[in-house]
Design brief:
With 448 residues, the chain is mainly alpha-helical. The protein is 77% helix and 1% strand. α1 packs across α12. It is globular and about 65 Å long. The protein binds phenylalanine. Phenylalanine (PHE) binds next to α1, α2, α10 and α14.
Length: 448
Amino acid sequence: MKRENFTSRFGVLMAMAGSAIGLGNMWRFPYMLGEYGGAAFILVYILCVFLLSLPILFCEFIIGRRSQTNAFGAFGKLAPGTAWKWVGLISLFAPLIIVSYYSVIGGWSLQYFFKACTFGFTDYVTHEELDSMFNDFVSSPLIPILGHTFFLLITALIVMGGVKGGIERFGKVMMPILFVVVVLIAVRAMTLEGASEGITYLFKPDFSKLTPEVCAAALGQSFFSLSLGCGTMLTYASYVNKSENIAKSSAAIAVSDLVFAMIAGCAIMPAVFAFGLSPQSGPGLVFKTLPFIFSQMPLGALVGILFFLALLIAALTSSISLFEVGVAYLVEEKGMKRRTASLSIFLVTWIVGIFCSLSFGPLSEFEILGNTLFDFFDKLSANFLMTIGSFLVVLFAGWKMKKADVMDEFTNGGTLGGNVRMFNFIWFIIRWIAPLVIIAIFLSNLFI
Ligand code: PHE
């Protein structure tokens, strides 16, 4: 059977930027900014994106497009008969773990979107009331599971539609809408009275806040945000046409992801400061602090609807990319039909996700290494699996693949002059800088 491919450059960009842009940008990035001190964190983050994450994205592109197969099979195909094939195992487990907890937040977004549509925030007058509404909501056993279920079902249905008819089509329609909506919200937030303090927080670095912990968090966030090290970009890259320019497409994805995170920051921080609230409310920032702001600010009800719509779209385009890794594996390695494969992934992630959801309520006492199941999965994936996965991807491209093959893929057989000229520099980063920096940060994080 012929493999499906993405059909247009725009489609590739929207699908891959769709994977990158997600809850990581709109939920994780803002609260990390709040916890790690604003602009200084952003600076380290930008360095991480361009010096490390972008070269890793090149590698995922190179491995995926060259192998023309799913993330599990790719390593075995490019290095047959070696132990490298086991690297693919990370891409079997990491995406399942991530979808399972990601879809819980996806479900919250879905339910908050409905709440916003029915003007559910306007009845609350104090911040504390919205806090306790959120706490009651996430700790109740059934309702969040309902959101999680619907969110996963929508994801599965889109993936069932195929690479072209499902994933590419959804991305092409939804990503531009998402972008416009978030820009509108940012304009509204930045024109609020008292917004300037939030803008200073975003753009004026305080270097005394820089610690190894902040650097490690920025690195982890840059991997998470660019969907690296867990097979998603690699799988999508295997659907990219041989004529696409890997360097350009990767740069476009990294830049849009960064710009989007900044716009999301501009949509959130100025409003948080304008209302005299703390940016340090952690993962609850988007679900507790923002609804309060929406209940207070002029046009807030409308902005609230738009915000949770954007959050939902961003989450969906990312979760379909995570789903696709497993589906591609089951279809190509196990000979399953796409529909059966999607349903199987649905079932597994649905069940595991239920436990993640319950870890906010009835199972909150159940801890693994001092974390609830949800936190454990979040840390395990962002700080551990994705870092190790990214490390192995650069090692594979830099030390196992032949330099000539890597260059051939990166330069489309030597036909892209610009890529030929920068290749030696990129090769140096892939072989030396990227692996060493990842080890350094990883170790410093373990021992601090
Ligand atoms: N990059 C996505 C986000 O920012 C999350 C994600 C991680 C998606 C890993 C796919 C793979 O939300």
